[in-house]
Design goal:
CATH superfamily of the largest domain: Bira Bifunctional Protein, Domain 2
CATH topology of the largest domain: BirA Bifunctional Protein, domain 2
Largest sheet: 7 strands, mixed
Strand order of the largest sheet: 1-5-6-10-9-8-7
Order of helices and strands: HHHHHEEHEEHEEHEEEHEHHH
Radius of gyration: 44 Å
CATH class of the largest domain: Alpha Beta
Structural class: alpha+beta
Shape: rod-shaped
CATH architecture of the largest domain: 2-Layer Sandwich
Distance between the termini: 94 Å
Number of helices: 12
Number of strands: 10
Helix content: 40-55%
Bound molecules: phenylalanine
């Protein structure tokens, strides 16, 4: 009688466990059959009513059935585990044959590329990099650079003033003065940076643009040194066959002064679309540092001389990349930028 009951429990347990498809359902099955108040335990409690002869055999069977149920539970647990793993693997499946999420890698802006190249060329010739503020004093931007009070570049229509004596620098030339003060020559520096002028943006003007200043001061520095330096730069920047041309000009802070052109690196000087038929492209202003500027920098013009130049970085970038409208450089349209 009790043996049959035990067999029934085994059958029920087997069926129950086979249906359990979560760990929680499995635990419920364990409690139901093997727990303190479980079915098997209930039967064992009733064993007291059995005769002494029957007891060992029933006890042995009960133990066997317990072991049996425990084993079925363990097997089911394993099965659930690997099934869970399989499900997870299926859900998290990665198709390695799909095309990758392309990550776009950017690159440096054409102006930055051009500036970096300039820095590379001039540091290769022994120049240091100097820096100056974009918010500058009228003194450094004009007076110390020998620009008299009535010089047109000082006009309000040309210059962004914060007050009478503070402004957005209109050129990188104030860094000349800042580099001289407190220093004993030789001085050999370039200073790339932003400058600001009250210009309406068009194909060749922008209220903000970049210049690269250059300054060399030592004993016996001549116009020949200036020309050699710029010729070396032009060849490195635009190609070995590039020539430079000096045209007389006027700047308050240099004497003599020149505007400097490079031979068109596209047509070699014959005239083409890039140089607008000229054969030459203007890229900078330059000259021998005016004695008054040396004095403002605390340097004795009777002992030292020097040259300076100021180059338009956009001008050089547009020339070397063949860009025809300055505004494109500041629109930051990726379709434009990714071409360089
Ligand atoms: N500062 C001048 C300009 O902005 C360029 C220049 C620099 C000319 C140094 C001569 C010497 O036009």
């Amino acid at each position: 009688m009790i043996k049959e009951q035990l067999e029934k429990i085994r059958e029920r347990a087997d069926a129950f466990i086979a249906q359990a498809d979560t760990e929680q359902a499995l635990e419920e099955a364990r409690i139901r059959f093997l727990g303190k108040k479980g079915e098997l335990t209930g039967i064992l409690r009733g064993m007291g009513a059995l005769s002494a002869e029957e007891r060992p055999a029933v006890g042995a069977l009960a133990n066997k059935i317990r072991e049996n149920i425990e084993q079925v539970l363990a097997e089911r647990k394993e099965a659930l585990k690997s099934k869970g793993m399989e499900l997870r693997l299926r859900a998290e499946k990665v198709d390695v044959t799909l095309p990758a999420n392309g990550k776009k890698v950017g690159h440096l802006h054409p102006i930055t590329q051009t500036r970096n190249r300039m820095v590379e060329i001039f540091t290769g010739m022994g120049f240091e990099i100097a820096e100056g503020p974009e918010v500058e004093s009228a003194y450094y931007n004009f007076d110390a650079l020998n620009a008299p009070a009535d010089h047109p570049s000082r006009d309000e229509t040309d210059t962004f003033y914060f007050s009478d004596d503070t402004l957005l620098r209109t050129q990188t030339s104030p860094v000349q003065i800042r580099s001289m003060i407190g220093r004993t020559p030789p001085i050999r520096m370039i200073s790339p940076g932003r400058v600001y002028r009250c210009d309406v943006a068009d194909a060749t003007h922008s209220p903000m643009f970049h210049q690269c200043e250059g300054l060399v001061i030592d004993k016996n520095v001549t116009m020949g040194d200036l020309k050699g330096t710029l010729a070396t730069f032009a060849k490195a920047m635009f190609g070995e066959s590039t020539r430079v041309r000096f045209r007389p000009h006027n700047f308050p802070f240099t004497e003599p002064s020149a505007e400097v052109d490079v031979s068109c690196f596209v047509c070699g000087g014959k005239g083409c679309r890039v140089c607008k038929g000229e054969g030459w492209i203007e890229i900078l202003g330059a000259g021998m540092v005016h004695p008054n500027v040396l004095r403002a920098g605390g340097i004795d013009p009777d002992v030292y001389s020097g040259f300076a130049f100021g180059m338009g970085i956009e001008r050089v970038a547009m020339t070397s990349f063949g860009i025809t409208d300055l505004r494109l450089m500041f629109d930051n349209d990726e379709r434009f930028l990714e071409q360089f």
